[in-house]
Amino acid sequence: MWQLKKEKSKPVYQQIVELILDYIDQGHLLPGEKIPSERKLAELLNVNRTTIVHALDELVSMGVIVRKRGSGTSVNDGKWGVYRGSTIDWRQYLSQGSTLKNHEYNQKVQLLLSNEKELRLLDVYSGDLPLGLVPELDLPTISWKEFLNEEKRQDNYGYFPLRKVIVKRLNQINKLKLNVDNLMLTPGAQQALLLLVQVLLNNGDAIAIEEPSSFYQLPMFQAAGIRVYGIPVDKEGMRVDLLEEKILKNRIKMVLVNPNYQNPTGTTMGLKRRKALIDLCRKYQLPIVEDDVFGELYFDEESRPPLLKKMDPENVIYIGSFSKILGATTKIGWVSGPVKVIEKLAKIRSELDLNMSIFPQVLAYNALENKTYESQMSHLRIVLFEKMTDLVARLDEKLKDEVTYYIPEGGCYLWLTFKNVRITITDYDFLLTKGVLVTPGFVLGSGPQSMRINFSRLTPEQSVILVDALVEMIGKR
């Protein structure tokens, strides 16, 4: 069994790491099974003992094998998701206010938005739907005392009726097999991430995210001492072929992806790429966190690929939210994973005193139970597609030879990249003077050549104004 075909292109210790991982993946090495001693392994693979020690050290750091004095070395029979203790004082962190990095450009935009009533702004910077597109749902006829009485139906996992209806909806739409015990409600997707960082990671651990990504705006990773490595995105999603190198070189402990209508590029991860990501993370025993906050904003239901959660239910932690549909102030999200992981998330949230208010949960429950909800969602998807199509037509008319973009299959973002002219930060300042607010690539882990446009906030007339401003921006040189 122990045979190593040495390759000149890779260090020998790395080849040994991959060999042992392959044996585990193929079932030749089982959880809890002992592996040969360092000396014996060196003889079997015909390498020096120092190389074996280096390889085993790597596998220990990855959590794949464990060493016990007097018992030797064996394959780890545990699972990821074991609570490892506090990484940061989250009460202090949350009390500091904003959960977005305060980039200088963001400060300028926020200043303009605070005076929006006095200024005529074209805002395609904000990530939310405009108020006119938020579904019109009647508030429940419920008294104050009835609201308070509903508190009895909430525990550390959230309001039970809402959890139940979300699970039912996820199972129907995405063909999942979730139970209510697999899901915990959160006040938005960010708290779900915050709790996962607290439970799954230690200070100094590394995670892989897409590049560019909206996750670059979240300071929680830096606050927790988490190292973040970006993996480039192409039209098929995260470059899984580049991810493995990062896993081995930087000891990645978790992979965070937004495979459906990725923020900001709008790309949808293809089925082949999804399978490759799952296989790779199984090989290295890494959890995948699937952020699917735009999942219901698809343009064509038939073309939707399966969720990563459906493809690998046990190894994928799934995050969703209503904030992109019912408005940012709704602050209702959820996280779904193995029962033991959800239990630990709920326990930590309770210890941090971050439990949710009953009011938005009851309102969200009534929204989902509203008979017009599905028809309004269908209408919303049609309107978003029309707005995207209109913007693309304007760009083709006046900037066809100057820009490239990926046409998304859903969501509300278009990622625009300039081809023939070098864009700088001062160009974005020029747009601000015109009252045009976009999201530059440099606040999302990319460069100034690209920008994110929230087309959901555009009327046809505003699409013309936006494109004319971009033409003026590159023509002023």
Please explain how this structure is put together:
- This is PLP-dependent aminotransferase family protein.
- The chain is of the alpha/beta class.
- The chain folds into 3 domains: 12-75, Winged helix-like DNA-binding domain superfamily/Winged helix DNA-binding domain (Arc Repressor Mutant, subunit A); 92-133 and 375-475, Aspartate Aminotransferase, domain 1 (Alpha-Beta Complex), CATH 3.90.1150; 144-371, Aspartate Aminotransferase, domain 2, CATH 3.40.640.10.
- It is 42% helix and 15% strand.
- It contains 18 helices and 18 strands.
- The chain has helices spanning 12-25, 38-45, 49-61, 90-95, 104-114, 144-150, 160-174, 189-200, 220-223, 240-250, 271-283, 308-311, 323-326, 339-351, 358-369, 373-399, 425-433, 460-475; strands spanning 65-68, 72-75, 122-123, 154-155, 158-159, 183-186, 206-211, 227-234, 237-238, 252-257, 288-291, 316-321, 333-336, 403-405, 413-418, 436-437, 439-440, 450-454.
- An 8-stranded mixed beta sheet has the order 6-13-12-11-10-7-8-9, with helices on both faces. A 4-stranded antiparallel beta sheet has the order 14-15-18-17, covered by helices on one side.
- Strand 8 and strand 9 form a beta hairpin.
Overall structural class, as computed from helix and strand content, comes to: alpha/beta
Tell me, what is the CATH class of the largest domain? Alpha Beta
Strand order of the largest sheet: 6-13-12-11-10-7-8-9
Q: What is the fold named in CATH at topology level of the largest domain?
A: Aspartate Aminotransferase, domain 2
* Radius of gyration from the alpha-carbon trace, in angstroms: 24 Å
Poorly predicted spans: 79-87
Number of domains: 3
What oligomeric state best describes the polypeptide chains here?
A: single chain
Count up the helices. 18
- Give the strand tally: 18
CATH architecture of the largest domain: 3-Layer(aba) Sandwich
Please report the distance between the alpha carbons of the first and last residues: 66 Å
Major sheet summary line: 8 strands, mixed
Q: Which percent band covers the strand fraction?
A: 15-25%
The coarse overall form would be globular
CATH superfamily of the largest domain: Type I PLP-dependent aspartate aminotransferase-like (Major domain)
How much helical structure, as a percent, in the residues? 40-55%
What is the arithmetic mean of pLDDT? 88
Domain HTH gntR-type: 10-78
Keywords: Aminotransferase, DNA-binding, Pyridoxal phosphate, Transcription, Transcription regulation, Transferase
Pfam family, one: Aminotran_1_2
Protein name: PLP-dependent aminotransferase family protein
